[in-house]
Amino acid sequence: MIKKIKITPELRQFLLSKKIYFAVNRQDGLADNCILTIDDSTILENNCLYTVSSFDKTLPTIGTHSYSATMFPTQSQIGRYCSIASDISFMSAQHPLDRFTTSSVMISGTSVSDSFGFSDACQIGGFKQVPYDQQMNDGIILGNDVWLGQEVLFKKNIKVGDGAVVGARSIVTKDVPPYAIVAGSPAKIIRYRYPFKIIEQLLILKWWNYPVWKFSSITADEQIESFIDKLQHKIITGEISEYHPEIVTAEDMSNYTD
Questions:
Q1: What distance in Å separates the CA atoms of residue 175 and residue 144, rounded to the nearest whole number?
Q2: For 74-92, how does the pLDDT look when each residue is reduced to its tens digit (9 = 90+)?
């Protein structure tokens, strides 16, 4: 269920204390008396950054060490270590393609149909409108380590796999496979970041579940084969274990509002 909560000084301080940031340099970036729209399932992992410019904000689920300069629908999910540019947008209502018309007035319960008085006319005239899922509130799902360029346009309900890259101004109408680089209108696979054998190993390894800052003897520009070997060794020997970041839930946020 989607709910709206008012931003209060107490909520701002609570989120800041949990390392949930809405401005760079670890600032809260929220304005009192403005509105956060959340879903009951919304979860924020600590050390995430959501730098959207709107005073009122819709909050998706966001994983640790991800940042977004774009506001997402509340039912979206953003994994860990994602890099999301500004001005990304999402297609609005979907329309039926297999009916005699794509017009929304033929769909029962739509605001367009009610605005024209079409529903009332249908009741008198005998025409039967039929419901259709226009996916109005649906979001998208991003895996971990996803990079989205500026001004990407997404169809609703898209899933972007772990490690994928979406080029700027792409129009994404289909799911994006893990570690694929896609671009264009409509977006198509340009290439994969690594050979399939490496991708399989990375998807099993799930490095984002571990505290990267403790990857001693590993550098940010480590060759991918060496990275996999070294991290696998650390995991097998017990030198490193999975990281479970502190989370903030929708219920937590609701406790700090009027």
A1: 15
A2: 999 999 999 999 999 999 8
Positive or negative: CA dihedral 32, 38, 44, 50: negative
| pLDDT at 234 (0 to 100) | 97
Tell me if the pTM is above 0.85.
yes
Inter-CA distances, 147 with 44, 86, 101, 235, 249, Å: 19, 12, 37, 26, 25
Helix, strand and coil content of the chain, in percent to the nearest 5, comes to 25, 20, 55
DSSP annotation string for 187-238: TEEEEESS-HHHHHHHHHH-GGGS-GGG-TT--TT--HHHHHHHHHHHHHTT
The catalytic residue positions are 95
Which domains are delineated in the chain? 2-92+138-193+247-254 (2.160.10.10), 95-132 (no CATH)
Helix (H, G, I), strand (E, B) or coil at 192: strand
| Residues 244 and 47 sit within 8 Å (Cβ to Cβ) | no
